[in-house]
Amino acid sequence: MENKMSALQKTSLIILSILLISCNQKQTKSTMKKDVHSFSNPEEVAITHMSLNLDLDFAKHTMKGYAKLNIDNKSNARKIILDTRDLSIEKIRLDDKTETKFELGKFKEFMGQSLSVDITSDTKSLTVYYQTSPNAAAVQWVETEGKADFLFTQSQAILARSWVPCQDGPGVKFTYDATIKVPQNLMALMSAENDTVKHADGVYHFKMNQPISSYLLALTVGDFEYKKIGRNSGVYAEPEMLEKAVYEFADMQKMIDAAEKLYGAYRWEQYDVVVLPASFPFGGMENPRLTFATPTIIAGDRSLVALVAHELAHSWSGNLVTNATWDDFWLNEGFTVYFENRIMEELYGKEYADMLEYLGYGELLEQVKEFGDTSVKTHLLLDMKDEDPDESVNAIAYEKGRFFLRSIEEAIGRKRWDEFVNKYFSQHAFQSMTTEDFLQYLNDELLKDDEALKQKINIDAWVFGPGIPANCPKVKATLFEEVDAAMQANGIIPTQSKTQNWNTHQWLYFLRNLPDSLSLEQMKNLDNAFGFTHSTNSEIQCDWYYHCIVNNYTVAQAFIEKFLTSVGRRKFLTPLYKAYIKTAEGKILAKQIFEKARNKYHPLAQHTVGELLN
Ligand code: BES
Ligand code: ZN
Q: Which of 154, 215, 285 to mutate to test the pocket of ligand 1 (most atoms within 8 A of CB)?
C-alpha cells in the first residue's frame, strides 16, 4: 500500500511539474494564448510575408486576384489553416508550382469559414487565387451620386478575412507588398508606402516593410490629392476637402514630434491621414503610415483633432506593441487614450487635456452604469468567446484602460512611469502582448518586491474585477468649473456673456450635464439662445440631437434625419438610434430613417444598427 501510494505520488508530481512547465511557457510566449476569434494555427505554421495582387471591379463590387503567403512551418505541419469570410477560392498553388488540395469549413456567424490547405514540411509559400463577395464585410463601395467612385476597407477587428485570406488574429505579424489595379482616374492607397500622385494606368504598387497584424491591412480608392504638412506628414483627400483638411490638421507634425519625445522613435517613417467619406464607421482607424479618418472631425476650428493624436499614438500602442487577442483589446486602446492625452497636453496645455480626460471619465461612468458595476463586461481583461469583437467596442477598454494606467502613473510618479512606457514600447516592438505578458513585465520592471506599491495600485481590481476601483485618479477640469458656475447662476440657460468664449468641450460638458428630461419650452429656449440644431460640429450635433429625440423636440427632426442619412460613424449612430427606440413611435421613425440610410452605411454600421432595431 505504501509503495503504491508513493508511486501515485511520484506520477502526480511528474504531471504537476509538466503542467507547471507548460504553464510557465504560456506566460512567456504570448503566441501560445489561443485566439478564439481565428480558425488559424499560427503556433504550428505562420505567415511571414504576403504578396497581394488584386484587380478592383467597381461595377461588380468585387476584387479578384491572389494572395501569395510565405510561411514559416515551425512544426512540420501538413496543413495550414487560414481565415476567410465570403471569399470564393479558385485554386491554391504551393511554391508557385503545383496545385494543392484545400477545404472550406462550415460557415460560423461573424467568424466566417476556415480554409484548410494541404502543405508539405518544406512548403515555402502558398498562393491563394480568389475573389471577394460584393457583400464583403470589410469593404464599402461608396454610393457616389455623380461623384468619382470611392472604396475603403475597415479590417479591425476580424474583417480582414473578408477581403484577404490570412491568419486573421492580432497575434500574427507579417510584412506585405501589393499590386492593386483600379479605374484610371482613381488613386489607390494602402497601410504602406504610398505614392502622392495618380498613375495613368491605374496600377499601384505598395510595400510595408515592418511586420503588421492582419487587422491593419487597409485599402482605399478615390479621387485623392495629396498635400504635405511637415517633414514626414501629410494629408490625402478629395480635391474639395483637401484645403479644409490641411487647415484642420496643421499641428500633425507637432504631434509626431511630441509623441517621439514622449515615448521614443516613430518606427514607420511616414505618417499621413486620408479623409474618407462620412460613411466611414469610425472616427479614425490607425492603419500604419496612413490613418483613415472621418470628415466629421473637420469642424473648421481644429476642435476635434485629439482624434489624430489618438490614431497617431496607436503607431506605438497597437501597431508596434499589439494586443495578442481581442480579449486584450484594452492594451491597445487604454494605452492609446492615455498617450493621446499626453500628446494633447504637450501641444495645448494641461487645462485643455484635463477637459478631454474629464469627458472621458464621464463616458466611463456611463458605460459602467449601462453594464452594471458588477458586470464582467467591465473587466479590462475580457472573455469574448462566442462574441463578435466588432460588436463589443465600448468605453471600458478605452477609459477604464486609461484610468488604470493613470493610477499607476499617480502611484509611482510621471518620471518613472514615462521611463517604463518608453522601455515597454522599445523592448516589445513588433511583438504582440497578452494582458498577462504586460502584467509580468510591469511586475518585473516596476513593482517587484514593493508590496505597498502593489496594494496601492490594486492590479487585480482593475484588470480582473468589475466597476471603477477606489484608487481611480480624481478628475478635475478648471475650464468646466466655469460651466458649472454659469449653470448654477442661471439654470439651464446661462447668459450669453458667460458662454461667448466657450470652446467645443465646454459645450459638450454643458450638453452632457443638462437634465435628461427637458420641456419643449426649455428645448426651444436653448436652441434659440445657442443655435444647437444648426451646429456644424458633429460632436455637438450628436449630443444635442440626443436631447431632441428623447424630449420629442420635432423642430430638429429634419436635421437629425439629414445627419443620420449622411454620417455613418457608429459612435453617433448608436446613441441616436438607441434614443429613438425608447418609445414605440420613435422606433417606427428610426426604422424609416434606417431604411433610407442603410445603403449609405458601411456593412459594419448596417449590422450594428440592424441589430439594434430588431
Ligand atoms: N482602432 C480604433 C477603431 C476600432 C476599434 C475599429 C475596434 C474596430 C474595432 C480607433 O483607434 C479608435 O479608437 N477610434 C475612435 C477614436 C477615438 C477614441 C479618439 C473612434 O472611431 O471614435
Ligand atoms: Zn483607438
A: 285
